[in-house]
Write a structure and sequence with these properties.
The protein has 2 domains: 24-198, no CATH class; 239-433 and 472-524, L,D-transpeptidase catalytic domain-like (Beta Barrel), CATH 2.40.440. Helix content is 42%, strand content 15%. Strands 1-2-3-12-10-9-4-14 form an 8-stranded mixed barrel. It is built from 19 helices and 16 strands. By secondary structure, it is α+β, with helices and mostly antiparallel strands. The chain is elongated. The active site is at residues 402, 421. Residues 1-21 form the signal peptide.
């Protein structure tokens, strides 16, 4: 028995070490069949994996998302995921073609490793390897450059090259960015060509901007400013912004306009006034203020923020809770100069939450602007700076849309004049669109001394007017709240180029955000 074992055991070792029992991996079978070349049947997974790891380590500085790639291929046992599925049927050539045309999106192809990707495709296609060992480095590098190009191209074209919250001042909109889970899943895409087609931006504005970019760049005397404006607005359209919905109100800050959209139709359009631009050299001045703490050193920043929210209510005959900054920089000086300024403007003063009975007697010189202990509110009425309507939505910047008691600013071409909130030109029309029913709209109209549209309610309207005119029982005007229709988004946006009636429209970069965005993305040109 021992003699039999001593003979059989070496024989088993010999058999197990022989290539007769090795299984050629799928990539080897596919390439052998495609090229009619037997060397690929000698594809040894263990030997290739060693080459792949060394190639990955050496290429990390040149690859996009190297850590994601490393973890993905480690979990896939170094399988040639992309080469196996997409080399023979030409889909890797399709990837290279899309990358080569990335200039249509304003990107340089070298950003995605275009030259090396096409060289590797050509080298593998040439099929000039003397043995399988010569093919390993080419296959490994092609796999990695294809994966890197796919991840970066998908991100830059499908999501944008810039995360706006990291670059733009007062940008509070959440944008969807690809995470490692998404990117790893992308490497398992079933149809690469179809996916590349699907991620191409298709909006009318984006396509118009693309055509404009091509025309501008082909010009014998290209306009660099228009090219820059076109590029940054293409980038804005690549950002994925969840939660806008099918019906929403867009305030375009540089256009000083408000447009109400529903299912791609325009329901309403009107002028708006937005916040004024922050002071020049703001960054340097804010550093000085942080050192001194003096209000005289604090630069003004009244820019309307970029944000997305949903309307929840309308306040009719609103009370204006005056912000601390306005109290310190404006109310303080006006009250100090004119002892009747507060009462003449229907402003109430509060000290530690309690109403000051006679604010006109306050000795303002006793109080420091920096530590002003008072709070200010302007009561309802015709003199209120918010006018008759305040349109409210949740946000962390205390921003809202509102009417105004001074309509003259709507006649200006440049309407960046407010402290940050947005004044609307046609507040009554806007309120009507926001409300749930005609009955509520009639109630709102009567609250601001307008007759109801429903003539059967005229008696109710007359009683309201009589109550307000009663001199015996002095009527005190108070705010009235109305709920809005649900799900209507408000998008305070910033666009300086778009297509309108088949022609490109450009607007001035009122806040300098185009410059900030272009400075962050110009390295990709």
């Amino acid at each position: 028995m021992k003699r039999i074992l001593t003979v059989v055991f070496p024989f088993v070792l010999l058999i197990s070490s022989c290539t007769w029992f090795k299984t050629t991996p799928e990539v080897g079978i596919i390439l052998a069949d495609h090229f009619k070349n037997k060397i690929y049947k000698n594809f040894d997974t263990a030997a290739y994996n060693q080459v792949f790891r060394k190639t990955l380590d050496s290429l990390k500085p040149k690859l996009s998302n190297p850590n994601t790639l490393g973890k993905f291929y480690e979990s896939e046992d170094m399988n040639t995921t992309l080469v196996t599925r997409f080399f023979v049927d030409g889909q890797l050539d399709t990837l290279a073609a899309y990358v080569g045309n990335s200039k249509l999106h304003g990107y340089k192809p070298s950003l995605f490793g275009y030259t090396r990707l096409t060289d590797l495709l050509e080298e593998l296609r040439g099929n000039q390897f003397k043995n399988i060992e010569e093919a390993y480095p080419v296959i490994a590098e092609l796999e990695l450059f294809s994966a890197s190009a796919l991840l970066k191209y998908d991100t830059f074209v499908g999501f944008g090259s810039i995360n706006p919250r990291k670059v733009l001042n007062r940008y509070y909109v959440t944008t969807t960015r690809p995470d490692s889970v998404y990117l790893s899943g992308l490497l398992k895409v079933e149809n690469l060509e179809k996916h590349l087609q699907q991620i191409q931006p298709r909006s009318a504005n984006y396509l118009a901007l693309q055509r404009s970019l091509g025309d501008l760049e082909k010009s014998s005397n290209p306009n660099s400013e228009l090219i820059k404006t076109t590029l940054v607005n293409m980038e804005r359209l690549r950002w994925k912004i969840p939660g806008i919905g099918n019906e929403y109100v867009e305030v375009n800050i540089p256009d000083y306009s408000l447009t109400w959209y529903k299912d791609n139709d325009t329901l309403s359009y009107m002028k708006v006034c937005v916040g004024s631009r922050r002071e020049l050299a703001y960054e340097e001045k804010i550093k000085a203020y942080n050192r001194t703490g003096k209000l005289d050193d604090k630069p003004k920043n009244h820019q309307t923020p970029i944000l997305l929210s949903k309307f929840n209510s309308i306040q009719v005959n609103p009370i204006w809770n005056i912000p601390v900054s306005i109290a310190q920089n404006e109310i303080y000086y006006n009250a100090a100069r004119d002892p009747y300024y507060l009462s003449n403007n229907n402003m109430r003063v509060y000290y530690k939450g309690k109403l000051v009975a006679d604010p006109d007697t306050i000795q303002w010189s006793k109080y420091s602007r920096e530590r002003l202990p008072f709070q200010f509110k302007q009561g309802s009425g015709s003199g209120n700076a918010l006018g008759k309507f305040k349109f409210i939505f949740e946000n962390g910047s205390s921003i809202y849309l509102h009417d105004t008691n001074n309509k003259s600013a709507f006649n200006r071409s440049v309407r960046a004049v407010s402290h940050g909130c947005v004044r609307v030109e046609k507040p009554l029309e806007f309120a009507e669109n926001l409300l749930k029913s005609k009955a509520e709209y009639d109630q709102l109209r009567m609250e601001v001394n307008l007759p109801p549209l429903d003539t059967t309610k005229m008696k109710v309207y007359q009683k309201i007017l009589q109550k307000k005119a009663d001199t015996v029982n002095a009527f005190q005007l108070k705010p009235k709240w109305f709920g809005t229709r649900k799900g209507i988004s408000i998008f305070l946006n910033y666009r300086t180029a778009w297509v309108q009636n088949g022609k490109m429209v450009y607007r001035n970069d009122v806040y300098g955000l185009d410059d900030a965005l272009y400075n962050a993305m110009k390295k990709y040109r």
